[in-house]
Design brief:
This protein is α/β, with parallel strands linked by helices and 374 residues long. It has one domain: Purple Acid Phosphatase, chain A, domain 2 (4-Layer Sandwich). It is built from 9 helices and 16 strands. The strands form 4 sheets. The chain has a 7-stranded mixed β-sheet, covered by helices on one side. β8, α7 and β9 form a beta-alpha-beta unit. α1 packs across α4, α2 runs antiparallel to α4 and α7 runs parallel beside α9. It is globular. The chain starts with a helix and ends with a strand. The N terminus is likely disordered.
């Protein structure tokens, strides 16, 4: 059965390469469009010269202090019609690369993403990290930006721990993505990383409009958020409430799970019964170690972020990526923590774990479902 699945996946990769568009350098240092298959082969044969160049983007000059006044003008605002659902498609851990095997597994990821967007017809696409990886990503980031741009849908990425590990720093990757007119991304204060920003959902009913939900996008670096980000989060989650005059709900998207993902799993999973315990509204699967911040002995490190979430009282959902074989969701101390479903088969893959996560904002609150695709 596994062999048959592998054959099917290989066939899918070959056929999805047809029409896939990517970029490669021309002799004058510019970029020309070519199929994904040609790009992967081109990069493979030009590996050495690719690795001899370092690509660094423009560092943000933004600064943030707790004395800053929260303003909608400093956030992205997306419209939602009253009485209608607002649909988000989350994609994560596609791991595009320039020339290694992940340049070829990108064909399956691209095909999956196209099918999901066509099926879901989202109002917003969120990308929760590890968009690219490996020691060379200069072509890969253009390849995936072009793909995302083709959907003609607002998309909001955050970085994972692998994105800036190669010859492109986070600022360069951000500069390329931000060339897409549909990309919602702000670098923010560099002391907090690259890519901490806010998206507000505004509902319009006739001549009246109000912010009904706030999405808080955070950079977890190589481990998790830092102390200044926690302060910024509290400012962001509380600031929107000051504008709306009510307790406006917020949702957090980041790449690496916080320690409470482990605490929640330990509390919710009955290892003897091999089933979720009652009282946690838990679902999904655990198939690999929860890679939250840990100390030298391997114990989870609580960095204070979850305490800030409980203090604000507005964040009811946290979505992360990072682990490719986990897709569980657990309600823990009033907050639902969910692993989003990985797209593609690069850098760790289990048959069946390929797809995305549909998140629906409705008048009744938030619901989600994992959408599985070959």
């Amino acid at each position: 059965m596994k062999k048959a699945i592998s054959v099917i996946l290989c066939i899918a990769m070959i056929f999805s390469a047809i029409g896939t568009v990517a970029f490669a350098a021309d002799e004058n240092g510019g970029y020309v469009r070519m199929t994904g298959l040609r790009q992967a082969i081109f990069a493979l044969f030009h590996k050495n010269e690719i690795l001899n160049t370092r690509y660094e983007g423009e560092k943000s000059t933004d600064t943030w202090t707790q004395d800053d006044i929260y303003s909608l003008e400093d956030t992205f605002v997306i419209e939602k019609q009253a009485g209608e659902d607002f649909v988000i498609l989350n994609l994560t851990d596609m791991h595009f690369a320039d020339y290694d095997y992940r340049a070829f597994t990108a064909f399956l990821a691209s095909a999956t993403m196209k099918r999901l967007v066509k099926k879901v017809q989202p109002d917003l696409i969120t990308v929760s990290g590890d968009i690219v990886c490996s020691d060379s990503t200069v072509y890969a980031i253009k390849r995936i930006t072009d793909l995302m741009n083709s959907f003609e849908t607002p998309w909001a990425p955050v970085f994972g721990n692998h994105d800036a590990e190669g010859n492109c720093d986070a600022n360069y990757l951000a500069d390329i993505m931000m060339q897409s007119p549909y990309c919602l991304f702000k670098k923010g204060d560099p002391e907090m990383g690259t890519g901490n920003y806010i998206i507000n959902i505004r509902e319009t009913d006739g001549n009246e409009s109000k912010i009904v939900h706030s999405l808080i996008m955070m950079d977890t670096h190589g481990s998790h958020v830092n102390e200044k980000q926690i302060a910024w989060y509290k400012w962001a989650a509380g600031g929107i409430c000051g504008i709306t005059g009510e307790k406006t709900e917020s949702t957090v998207f980041f790449h690496i799970p916080c320690a409470q993902y482990q605490y929640a799993y330990d509390a919710a999973w009955d290892n003897e019964a091999k089933a979720w315990r009652d009282g946690f509204a838990a679902s999904g699967e655990w198939n690999e170690k929860i890679c939250c911040p840990r100390d030298a002995e391997g114990n989870p490190v609580d960095n204070g972020f979850f305490a800030a979430v409980k203090e604000t009282g507005t964040t009811k959902n946290i979505f992360c990526g990072h682990e490719h074989l986990n897709n569980f969701s657990i309600e823990y101390e009033g907050v639902r923590m969910t692993y989003t479903l990985k797209v593609g088969m690069a850098s760790g893959f289990k048959p069946g774990f390929n797809g995305g996560t549909k998140i629906v904002l409705s008048d009744e609150g938030i619901r989600f479902e994992h959408l599985y695709s070959l």
